[in-house]
Specification:
The protein has helices at 2-6, 94-107, 116-135, 153-160, 164-169, 173-204, and strands at 9-11, 26-28, 31-33, 39-41, 48-60, 63-70. It is of the alpha+beta class.
Length: 210
């Protein structure tokens, strides 16, 4: 207990309500006690899913096995210098999109198969192959520009009216109010442009020919 208090640790055995047989770690004759504990960091409290004693298992004579289940979120740290090639999907427009459509209809494995997973794998592989050849692949260095294929003239005009430069030069109440109003208008224009563009895309993809 002193060790746990000194290093701000928690006792995983005390976090859950268990029957006595799942708490006792030492048993000898008429005497039984809970003398074995699992210590964990206090910030890992929510990662601890369960902790109990296995009555039928012994570590050494008279000592029962105590186990705890933890679930941690492991974040993979990618090397920023590593180059990852990406398909240039932002080129899916105009004549390039028509070429992609024709090649997919001609080369795609569209026949029905018995195994759904195998059919899906063949289709996904074909889509990646045709897309990489039709649109090209980046060199994997600097990140490409954000997705702006829904951009139009209305969004362009609304963005230009954001009044950020005026606010930067003079942070008066009038400029702040004008900037907030222009920002709301710009966000609304972006939202409308996205909805319209996606609706057009879904309509084009609504038939088997598309």
């Amino acid at each position: 207990m002193n060790f746990a208090l000194a290093y701000d640790l928690l006792l995983a055995n005390t976090l859950f309500s268990k029957r006595e047989s799942h708490l006792v770690t030492f048993h000898s004759g008429q005497y039984s006690s809970q003398i074995d504990f699992i210590l964990a960091r206090r910030e890992d409290r929510h990662a601890c899913l369960d902790c109990k004693v296995i009555p039928g298992e012994c570590v050494v004579p008279q000592h029962k096995l105590v186990v705890a289940d933890f679930r941690f979120r492991v974040r993979a740290h990618r090397d920023k210098r590593a180059k990852i090639a990406r398909t240039k999907w932002w080129k899916l427009r105009g004549e390039t999109a028509q070429t992609f459509k024709e090649r997919m209809l001609g080369e795609g494995p569209w026949e029905e198969g018995v195994d759904v997973d195998d059919t899906w794998l063949k289709m996904a592989t074909c889509v990646r192959k045709v897309a990489s050849e039709a649109f090209g692949v980046s060199r994997g260095g600097k990140q490409e520009a954000k997705d702006i294929w829904w951009w139009n003239d209305e969004v362009q005009r609304a963005i230009k009216e954001e009044c950020f430069k005026c606010l930067h030069l003079d942070k008066s109440a009038a400029n702040i109010k004008g900037y907030k109003l222009a920002k709301r208008v710009a966000k609304r224009a972006v939202s409308v442009a996205k909805v319209k563009t996606y609706d057009d895309l879904y309509q084009r993809l609504g038939t088997k020919e598309e």
